[in-house]
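Batch job 17 of 40 flagged for manual review because the log was empty.
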Amino acid sequence: MKEQIEQLRQKWKTLPPGDRRALGILGLFLGSLFVVFGLFLPAKNYFEAAQARTVEARELLAWMQQQRPVLEQIGSSHKPSSASGTLLQRVTAAAEQRKIAIKRFEPEGDGRVRLWIERARYQDLQPWLNSLLQQGITIHTVNMDGLGEEGMVSARLTLEG
């Protein structure tokens, strides 16, 4: 490496003074281009993008704070109805009302139950789930698979009440 640097110095010394000056100016110009386009502009663009993200985040926070009273009203008006019976009794009663056949159920303790429904119309299943939510039953997981017939699904659910 030292030998290569020494060779470059020897070539530099052998150049005429005009060429040395031109190469020096060219090196200075290329160095300034590197500083501007390689360091300054990317940093400036990053800073401007960060400022824009900050403004967007502040606007989102202000909007969320404006929506808080509305959400609190919704939360206080949506009190689960006090239904009698165990979770499984309430779920099966609601399923019978909507004509949904539960193939299998498995209690999971702590007020949870896992259900399997093999064939149900989606038009019946969705109002049933809404009625469960209105009774204060929490839906933890829902896995639905479409069947060959149009509008028919099979579902696996985990509910907690």
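Reviewer: the log was empty due to a logging misconfiguration, but the result itself is present. Residues 68 and 157 are 31 Å apart (CA to CA). Unflagging and moving on to job 18.
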